[in-house]
TrEMBL record:
InterPro entries: LolA/LolB/LppX, OM_lipoprot_carrier_LolA-like. Residues 1-20 form the signal peptide. Keywords: Signal. CDD domains: LolA (cd16325). This is Chaperone LolA. Transmembrane segments: none annotated. SUPFAM superfamilies: Prokaryotic lipoproteins and lipoprotein localization factors. The keyword Repressor does not apply.
Length: 219
């Protein structure tokens, strides 16, 4: 899997660019659950969340998993996986690949509808998805409210997303993304720590800490 699909999937959870083509009716009960997640996240100053990203290819052709961490402070974020980092201060973004010791620098497009980690925990669902409550399950002692989201733009590669919300804590516990090509991506939040002390330096890339790094500046 190329770079473990980080740039293509993790930043979004689900990247959908472009406006929705159509809009139908969504389940009010599902909206209540998602609004609860969004409102709780907006009340937090910072978040540090550990996760496991599992990739399953079509017909079980590929199966892999890696652990990572996401740091959030308002619209700023940093995502780390083994050998990879994506950092943004909401003005500039840096994508670092350890295997080639290279960082790609871009300007953040404020008009873009692509999902960022911060948007993932807020009301990303209202514009580009229809959603319905799909019952409750119990996993690892947690009651999960499962919500099925389907994109209103049917041309996109992702055709379904299952979001599992911890009913007690009103936080996303797990998300499974289904692609038309048969690939599945599961993000499981293993630890969620709010309001930690994160300095703004967390959300910038300092080349001095990466000796010999090649900088590819696309701004």
């Amino acid at each position: 899997m190329k770079k473990f699909v980080l740039t293509g999937m993790l930043l979004s959870g689900i990247i959908f660019s472009g406006m929705a083509q159509s809009k139908g009716a969504s389940d009010p009960k599902a909206k209540t659950v998602l609004d609860g997640v969004s409102n709780k996240f907006k009340s937090l100053k910072t978040v540090v969340a550990n996760f496991i990203l599992k990739v399953e290819g079509a017909n079980n052709s590929v199966s892999d998993s890696k652990k990572g961490t996401v740091y959030l402070k308002g619209a700023k974020y940093k995502v780390t996986l083994p050998g990879q980092e994506i950092i943004s201060d909401n003005k500039t973004s840096w994508t670092y690949a350890k295997d080639v010791n290279e960082v790609t620098v871009n300007t953040v497009d404020q008009s873009s509808s692509a999902m960022t980690p911060a948007k993932l925990f807020t009301n990303f669902y209202d514009k580009d998805y229809l959603y319905k409550l799909d019952g409750e399950t119990t996993e690892k002692g947690k009651v999960l409210q499962n919500i099925e989201l389907t994109p209103t733009d049917k041309s996109k590669n992702v055709f379904k997303v299952i979001v599992s919300v911890d009913k007690k804590n009103q936080s996303i516990a797990k998300m499974k993304v289904f692609e038309k090509n048969g690939n599945h991506y599961t993000y499981e939040i293993t630890n969620f720590t709010p309001n930690t002390n994160l300095s703004d330096a967390t959300f910038t890339f300092d080349a001095k800490n990466y000796p010999g790094v090649e900088v590819v500046d696309l701004r």
